[in-house]
């Protein structure tokens, strides 16, 4: 079915976002269209190999996309120095995200794809969150956001995310695991077409606690959460030792791994396939994906940036939006 274009945010213009955006257009111009909300003059200044066209609407962007990179203009306050974050860019960066979410909420955009930005940028702009996810929840009008990293070989969901490792045992609750598991299972069914999603739930401690001899979180927190998910009819197993959950034979037994902390989830997927991993926000009323990497200031402007993750994020956003559209039409 025909869907409107995707809305791509500018991210931090001093990072690799502008480069990978241009490269993504070259790779995808024969496929589902997207428009980036950014400064057209800045994008055009990066080279003549990508024609840039300022557009007024996403409908116009769809017509332009086969011939040029469509840009919904969001001018920057000052020139960009690659690799040097500038607080003066923060207002335009923020407006880019706000406009993208508004377009998705109105139905004008099929989904939101966010280019990388640094947490300091949000702080400089006075945003009350230090990351995209909870900010997007506010902009999207609610929901219970859950971060999933998805690639061809693995999907992982961290139950606790950007907190110090020392705080994980206190933050980890059965309710949090159950909520993440329910949202993940529902999204795998609705957005990925898996009729009976299988969740593997990791333990927190080495060897999944070894029956309480290396920690009791598995017994007191994680196992009751798994039982609650099973009572909901969700195919959830565990707690599984984290050190044996991600080899090839183990990955074949589940559709997503529910992990207890950030690095337990992100290390294996980035080790397996860093370039193709996509950050997907589950549990929002809109579709949102992002490349699974940061601003990469150290290589910005040097022609070294790999656009693969952004391309994968755009393709995954289009696929999820199409599946939701089909379900709605049915």
Write structural notes for this entry.
- This protein has 330 residues and is α/β, with parallel strands linked by helices.
- It has a 12-stranded mixed β-sheet with strand order 3-4-2-1-5-12-11-6-7-10-8-9, sandwiched between helices.
- The longest helix has 22 residues, at 308-329.
- It has 2 domains: 1-142 and 286-322, Isopropylmalate Dehydrogenase, CATH 3.40.718.10; 144-283, 3-Layer(aba) Sandwich (Isopropylmalate Dehydrogenase).
- It is globular and about 60 Å long.
- The chain has 12 helices and 12 strands.
- Helix 1 crosses helix 12 and helix 8 (174-192) crosses helix 9 (217-231).
* SS strand fraction: 15-25%
User: Largest sheet, order of strands side by side?
Assistant: 3-4-2-1-5-12-11-6-7-10-8-9
| Structural classification | alpha/beta
What's the mean pLDDT score?
94
Examine the secondary-structure arrangement and name the CATH architecture of the largest domain: 3-Layer(aba) Sandwich
Number of domains: 2
Overall shape: it is globular
Please describe the biggest sheet, giving its number of strands, its sense, and whether it closes into a barrel: 12 strands, mixed
Low-confidence stretches: none
Distance between the termini: 12 Å
The CATH superfamily of the largest domain bears the name Isopropylmalate Dehydrogenase
Radius of gyration: 20 Å
Can you tell me the CATH class of the largest domain? Answer: Alpha Beta
The helix tally amounts to 12
CATH topology of the largest domain: Isopropylmalate Dehydrogenase
Order of helices and strands: EHEHEHEHEHHEEHHEHEHEHEEH
User: How many strands?
Assistant: 12
How helix-rich are the residues, as a percent range?
40-55%
